[in-house]
Amino acid sequence: MAESTYVPRFKARYRDELAPALKEELGFTNLMQVPRLEKIVVNMGVGDAIKDGRMLDAALEDLTTITGQKPVVTKARKSIAGFKLREGMSIGAKATLRGDRMWEFLDRMVSLALPRIRDFRGLDPGSFDGRGNYSLGIREQIIFPEIDYDSINQIRGLDVAITTTAETDEQAEALLRGLGFPLATEEQRG
Asked: Beta strand pairing status for 72-75 and 37-45?
């Protein structure tokens, strides 16, 4: 039985080129100190699921297509009368990606999906959380090429949270820029 030797493109690039370069750039003595990706959480809130359960099914299908794995249905933690929301109602979906699936998703997002955003001027470099993690919101799920434009019933947004082992935002920014993240500079933003 032949062993599978497939390694995702971004994972190979990180291991072979980026990690040694970051070790030098950030002044680490050991390669294990270099920041790396831990997980990526893709979340899709579906507030319309309160009125129509089919909206949640469509969101689950979209998220499965985008991430390549079955998402978990998220439930409301507390009741909010103004939104006609009760504790325990299904209001969203999320998928936590690790390992090769995480690297593949990141590759597709950076190489294919982000360049398809209309009027794209780069990602906000201020979206780091202070502990080396990065979050971004995507307004339309149709920027992913896997989604069939004709089969969707509603355009939905999704949140992507990238968790790294970096201790500071500067280390995480160096990691993400090295991976090809289109983080905007001050000239592009102004």
From this structure: unpaired
94 contacts 45 by C-beta, under 8 angstroms? no
Query: ∠ at Cα 158 (125, 34), nearest 5°?
Result: 45
Q: Which of 127, 179, 125, 188 is nearest to 8 (CA)?
A: 179
- pLDDT digits (tens), the chain, 190 positions: 556 788 888 889 988 989 999 888 888 888 888 898 999 999 988 877 677 778 888 888 888 988 889 999 888 778 878 777 778 777 888 999 998 899 999 988 888 888 888 888 888 888 888 888 999 888 888 888 888 777 777 888 889 999 999 888 888 888 888 888 888 876 555 5
